[in-house]
Each structure stands twice: as structure tokens, then as C-alpha cells.
Design a protein that fits this description.
The protein has 311 residues and is an alpha/beta fold. Helix content is 25%, strand content 26%. A hairpin with a 2-residue loop joins strand 10 and strand 11.
Length: 311
Amino acid sequence: MRVVFMGTPDFSVPTLEKIIEAGHEVIGVVTQPDKAKGRGKKVLFPPVKETALAHNLPVYQPRRARDPEFIEEMKTLNPDVMVVVAFGQILPKAILDIPKYGCINVHASLLPKYRGAAPIQWAVIRGEKVSGVTTMQMDVGLDTGDMLLKKEVLLDEEETGGSLHDKLSTLGGNLLIETLEKIEAGDIHPEKQDDSQAGEYARMLDKNLGRIDFSMPAAEIERLIRGLNPWPSAFTSYNGKTMKLWKAKADNCGQGVPGQVIHVDKNSFTVQTGQGTLQILELQMEGKKRMDAGAFLRGCPLETGTMLGQE
């Protein structure tokens, strides 16, 4: 098949590589514009662009996918299908109508649940036991098109946003190839989404989401810590500095004021929450490296009764 691939972050790369490996003709790769980052404002290529250049594929970086010039370029390419994986822009109908087989999206959830920008992290935060990927025939709605194929994956008890990202990224590439094979063979059976089964919208992540409210139940805070690992991270404050929490264990017991350190041992410390306690196992102080709680306590003895989260 003649394929135009549209994607931007690391999550998209395995699918592009699978398309190339399967022998499809990638006639164009569309990704977001380069961005300047860091103090030196060094221009960094999106991961998908780096992969495309490594395979000598033509790259397109429109500022807006609805620009008439870009739409005409895509028409000129005359693709059989466009594959869209975390591209980062909403596609207009003029783009969706170009390919013979339309635009196929690889979405990192079992639709219709977790429509939106951050389905991976929200699945962990909300305590899902099962997640997966869905290939979808795109329409003008946001993740509302007909479902094509699905593949499930079980979440581990210590699943993080990062580990689930990697699992679904690989799974998505394999499912996309299977989807293209079935489309070519005329053996695909689109299924309309049941809007009544759509869960809460998986809104985009921001740094403020990670601010821990210790009045919440310990189990919810523990899931928040895992879901926001590695970005944007869950955090609190100690002695006026930011303390990121990377690993914790929830327990139902304990009595105290939410945010209060109620127990300290050699390798961890325990904080009271609104319901149960949270044993802190791994953290990172502002300006310091990530470390286990034991290493932190050896350099910074923490007393019982200390309050976290107070500015």
C-alpha cells in the first residue's frame, strides 16, 4: 500500500517502523514542526522525523494540517491510506477524504473508553485492570470513528504511565499491520462506537495535575504517582522545596493528620492520607537525583510529625 504516516512522539515510532518492515511504500511522513528547547534553544526534531530521515523518507511539517497548501500536497501524493498515531493536530475532512481507504488511527485505549489526549496515563490513574489499543477509521469527531481491531493488555500492579506507554506503543504497531492486511483483503468489519460506553474524557496532562492532595485516599494517590511517572510526575513539598514521589505503597491502616509523617524506618517513611497511609519508597528532591527513600533518609533525617505539602 502507498502510505502517508502522520505522527510525532516516541509512541508513534514503532508503528512507522512496522509499516516499513512490512514492505508498504511510505510515500510521506507528516509530523509537527521542530521545536527549540532548553536554555540554549537547541532545535530538536520530533522522534518521528528522526526515524523518517534515518530511512530516507520525505518529511512534511505543516504548522496547520488544514492549510490549503498542505492539503494540496497530500492530494498530489495520492496515498492509499493515511496512518495517524499521536500526530497532535485535528485533521479536517478535506484530509480525511483524500486516501482510498481513509485515515486509520492507532489509539492507545480500548475505545470508546478513554477518548482524548492522555488515555495511557488516565488508565493507570483510574485503576483500570485492562487497557489496550484500537485501530479506528477516523471521522471529523474526536476519537469517535468506527472501530476496526482491538488488542488488550493486562496492567501490572506496579504499572506506570511509562511502562504502559511502551507496551501499547509496540502493540499498536503490530495491530496496525494486521489492520492494513485485513483492509487489503477486504476482510475488515468496522464497528460503530457506543457513545453510552464512553468513559470520562482523558484530558491532556499538565504539571499541576501532579500536586498531591493528601486528603485523598492513599490508593488514589499511589495510582496518581504511577500514572504520572515519568511525566509530569506527582509531587509535594518539604521544607519549601519540591519533592517528587516516584514509588509508594498504599495501606489501609494508620491514624493522623493528612500529610503528616507518622512513621520513619531505615528504608522508607509513611505519610497519613485522608484514607489509609502511603509508604514512600522512592523520591526526588528539587535539584537532586532520583533516589530510594533510604538514601534520602540517610542524608536528611526525617522526624515523625513532619508535615508534607505545606508551602
